[in-house]
């Protein structure tokens, strides 16, 4: 096979895109559990959204930072919590991408006992911006048997602006 | 150091292989929990195998899709479940690869309570095909103290056709 | 955009570094649960450290292998256990890197019942050596509400020798 600088650069760009998307999502859990709402909100675009189905929806970086800085999350942090994510299945479509995967919040119950407090499905929609890939929408729904949660995990829907 | 198009292309190919293998495995959980047996079975080769030690063994895409479309899995989905995987340790050997890692099935018990229902070891064997990397064998065993499960996690065995 | 061999090689190197770091960390869980202390200790540098805050600190490969070969870990393995890690948020800084993320130890209680036995925060510090990236320090702290654990997850501290 003959290679050109252009063809190699294109293949490299695809890997860099996947790496950037995975990195944005991998930062979520550590930032949530260190309580850094400001840095966490920078994973989203200016007017990005975080929708926790049946619980809360936040639009814009201020509102997203607010979820982390609010009383609920602070109380969880003080008890002890871990926002663990699984690997994400990424679909790239030019400057848009979707990433689907699980998240589990472990909660410390005291005396070194933990429970799986929330087990959820996630569909992240990301967009390439001048400053890099950012989240434009994250939908999260409890995997408690509801169809909505299962739908977030199906790849039949191509990346699109929600 | 001097670089040639050929040496860069070779390094790029290795990264693309790792990315493809990770991507195949990252799709498993979301496809299992969205109930899409047909799409899930496409992660395997035509006559690929999925062996759940002491529980079931499925050979071929039809049989693998059947695990997801069968009554056991459908009942679990209706209650609420999450097939969470950990990161995989990948060994590449030309057109064969192995990937070792953990999987956890969380089950919804009702009222937003979850349990870690199965905690297992996995050894995936993958092969490069014309259409890309596909699973030829996945072995899964419960980490309940049995030696079989621990053996799946040891890298002392090079990638090979099971 | 014009590309040069040099610029492509540099971009490739960055991806290879991230891949190598992720791979080192992805090997930890499978090696711990297969009980291979010797191979596990090779993920660290000669005099690398593994600090489990409030529990144990091991310096050097012999001591790190000893954690896996000691009575505590062997007893856990015989009961059944899984060292599951989450994705890591990596910061590269030349020949140093940090990686932050969660780890969960599941313990088999008998009869196929499991508990989340330890849920912890981790900050890995890695260094590029002639033989590749290796861990020079891993700090692990239980996410039981203590500030120490949350601090391990904050990216405000650049990669540095602990």
Automatic annotation (TrEMBL), chains A, B, C:
InterPro entries: NTF2-like_dom_sf, SnoaL-like. It comes from Novosphingobium mathurense. Residues 13-138 form the SnoaL-like domain. This is SnoaL-like domain-containing protein. The lineage of its organism: Bacteria, Pseudomonadati, Pseudomonadota, Alphaproteobacteria, Sphingomonadales. CDD domains: NTF2_like. It comes from the Bacteria.
């Amino acid at each position: 096979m003959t290679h050109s600088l252009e063809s190699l650069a294109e293949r490299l760009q695809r890997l860099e895109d996947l790496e950037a998307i995975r990195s944005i999502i991998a930062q979520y859990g550590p930032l949530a559990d260190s309580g850094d709402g400001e840095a966490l909100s920078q994973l989203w675009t200016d007017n990005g959204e975080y929708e926790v189905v049946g619980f809360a929806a936040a639009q814009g970086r201020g509102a997203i930072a607010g979820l982390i800085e609010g009383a609920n999350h602070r109380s969880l942090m003080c008890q002890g919590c871990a926002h663990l994510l699984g690997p994400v299945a990424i679909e790239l479509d030019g400057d848009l991408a979707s990433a689907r995967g699980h998240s589990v919040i472990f909660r410390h119950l005291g005396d070194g006992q933990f429970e799986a407090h929330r087990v959820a499905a996630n569909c992240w929609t990301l967009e390439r911006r001048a400053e890099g890939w950012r989240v434009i929408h994250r939908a999260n729904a409890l995997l408690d048997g509801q169809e909505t949660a299962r739908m977030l995990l199906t790849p039949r829907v191509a990346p699109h602006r929600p």
